[in-house]
């Protein structure tokens, strides 16, 4: 269960870290509250505070592989801040929200740009080999693919609920295409941690879901 108070504290800590040791800025609380409200919108079933908390927890585990963990944490907060299941520009709108909010909140321009870049990277989840922060964010976002069977089933059910407006046959075909694309990747996870701990289980889960969709 996600804890809004704990999340508010985590946001403030990441924002203060991104501002830098000598920087000042407005109170982080209104920014956290705005994001928390977005992540609790009624159209969400998977992209909720529970997902946000999980991504932040995974980033904490992956932080030794990042060069700027606080920028990655802020990117996690913003990566699905704008989310309408029937729209294709969610990541771009989320990145623009990050650019506006973080600049106003006192984050230096270069770091704000980096957060927005990371948010946009979640369109493809395909970070470069020399992009450790992108690798950490994408691995954290995709870690659900390696969840235990019951949690993976809950994830797929929640995704189906978010796309409840899509007819069953069309959803199965679209979802199967996505899963085949994932299985065709040489690596689902880019960090050593993700490759060691999540890769095999994620491939098993994806293959099992695909077989079910095609049965």
Please tell me the CATH architecture of the largest domain by its name.
Orthogonal Bundle
The structure class reads mainly alpha
Overall geometry comes to globular
Helices and strands, in order, run as: HHHHHHHHHHH
Q: Tell me how many strands there are.
A: 0
Detail the topology: elements first, then pairings.
Elements: H1 4-19, H2 29-39, H3 49-62, H4 69-78, H5 90-104, H6 109-121, H7 132-142, H8 149-162, H9 168-184, H10 192-197, H11 199-214
Helix pairs in contact: 1-2, 1-4, 3-4, 3-7, 4-6, 4-7, 5-6, 9-11
Which structural traits does this protein have?
Hypothetical protein af1432, 11 helices, 2 domains, 215 residues, mainly alpha, 67% helix
Can you walk me through this structure?
Helices cover about 65% and strands about 0% of the residues. With about 220 residues, it is mainly α. It has two domains: about 5-145, Hypothetical protein af1432 (Orthogonal Bundle); about 145-215, no CATH class. The longest helix is centred in the C-terminal third of the chain and has 17 residues, at about 170-185. The model has no long low-confidence stretch (mean pLDDT about 95).
